[in-house]
Design a protein that fits this description.
Number of helices: 12
CATH class of the largest domain: Alpha Beta
Structural class: alpha/beta
Strand order of the largest sheet: 1-7-6-5-4-2-3
Largest sheet: 7 strands, mixed
CATH architecture of the largest domain: 3-Layer(aba) Sandwich
Strand content: 5-15%
CATH topology of the largest domain: Aspartate Aminotransferase, domain 2
Mean pLDDT: 94
Shape: globular
Order of helices and strands: HHHEHEHEEHEEEHHHEHEHEEH
CATH superfamily of the largest domain: Type I PLP-dependent aspartate aminotransferase-like (Major domain)
Number of strands: 11
Radius of gyration: 22 Å
């Protein structure tokens, strides 16, 4: 596939080789554990090239290779590595570069399970984590230590939506043998090209927008260089991580419609956010496209669009009133994850998971995922919810 094609064309054709599969557009699902060989020499050759050929199911099949090729092209990287979930991708990427005595700089607005992995698994391995302000930008150089090996970013944050200055952070890490990693799930690798802003390793939960139908658990890691890809691929293999072929097939299929789905998510989210901004119950809109969102100017500079995930801060309502609002929602389901066709809503309070920054919101916070429904129906659902919030029913 020609990487010079525009993104809409890339996602339709990348990872597809119908001439190699009797004209079939989508690569078939190869389920495999054992792979057999005609001779000892052939087996030894396959083992020596196990990352590039079908050697054993854990290391990949034609289905996973096609998916990884497509992901790497989407994000503009060298190659990708598939694992079983977004959290697995985060864990593998970090463990590929960190060892006892090393230091990790982790963004304070990180996905909750990322923080738990650092505080539990990495801590037990003798790896120290320092959490930093997501808006630190180039001043992150002031907290880099000689033993710092990784700077982990998440832009925007998946609850509070701070947009990080990735070029400035990458410049601070340059020439210091520090890898800059990005959780790029919010943009799906479509609205932000990570390697154009200095990132070394891009991570996504394919579970979210790339698969897009709330029925897949999958993650991937894309490396900027051959050396980094080999490091990550080796770590994944040693830790027993591999992509399940059926889910890789679904991830690749989901990619074909990524552009049109993201466009609808974006349109719905913007319509909802603008409506919510005018509601007296709402204090703040945390959406990168809104000027009051921390890092809005950086989003304008680095991103080409916005997905369907954002948050709002309510005025000072009690937990009981917020629960009454949420318990009666019709279209907004109460559920974790996001990126599927359905709209979701959850309450959150980040005060217990911040150590470098303080959360001083006016009231309770809600995270919304705008799905594929008619936005007027979603607005009506929220309006009925506000009636319950205000005890008008």
């Amino acid at each position: 596939m020609n990487s010079k094609h525009r993104p809409d064309t890339q996602i339709v054709h990348t990872g597809s080789r119908p001439e190699e599969q009797q004209g079939v557009m989508n690569p078939p699902v190869y389920r495999a554990s054992t792979v057999t060989f005609p001779t000892v020499d052939a087996m030894n050759e396959a083992e020596a090239n196990r990352f590039d050929t079908v050697f054993y199911g854990l290391y990949g099949t034609p289905t996973t290779f096609a998916y990884e090729e497509a992901i790497a092209e989407l994000e503009g990287g060298y190659r990708s590595v598939t694992v079983a979930s977004g959290l697995a991708a985060i864990a593998v990427a970090l463990m590929a570069y960190l060892k006892a005595g090393d230091h990790l700089l982790m963004v304070d607005s990180a996905y909750g399970p990322t923080r738990k992995f650092c505080d539990n698994i990495l801590n037990r391995c003798g790896i120290e984590t320092t959490y930093y302000d997501p808006l630190v930008g180039g001043a992150i150089g002031d907290i880099i230590r000689p033993e710092t090996k990784v700077i982990f970013t998440e832009s925007p944050g998946s609850l509070t939506f701070e947009v990080q200055d990735l070029p400035a952070i990458s410049e601070a890490a340059c020439n210091q043998d520090i890898k800059v990693m990005l959780d790029n799930t919010w943009s799906a690798g479509f609205y932000l090209k990570p390697f154009e802003v200095g990132v070394d390793i891009s991570i996504q939960a394919t579970t979210k927008y790339l698969a897009g139908h709330a029925d897949v658990m999958l993650g991937h890691i894309t490396a900027k260089s051959e050396e980094d890809w080999l490091t990550v691929k080796t770590a994944a293999g040693l830790m027993g991580h591999g992509g399940e072929p059926d889910n890789c097939y679904l991830g690749l299929r989901g990619m074909r419609t990524l552009s049109v789905r993201l466009e609808r998510h974006q349109e719905n989210a913007m319509k909802l956010a603008n409506w919510l901004a005018a509601r007296p119950e709402v204090d703040t809109i945390l959406h990168p496209a809104f000027s009051q969102c921390p890092g809005h100017e950086i989003w304008q500079r680095d991103f080409t669009g916005a997905s369907g995930l954002f948050s709002i801060i309510l005025r000072n309502y009690s937990r009981e009133r917020v629960n009454a609002m949420l318990d009666g929602m019709d279209l907004f389901a109460l559920g974790y994850s996001w990126g599927g066709f359905e709209s979701l809503i959850i309450p959150f309070d980040p005060r217990g998971s911040r150590s470098a920054t303080k959360w001083n919101a006016a009231g309770p916070a809600l995270r919304l995922h705008a799905g594929q429904e008619d936005p007027d129906d979603l607005i009506a659902d929220l309006e009925r919810g506000f009636d319950r919030l205000n005890d008008k029913v």
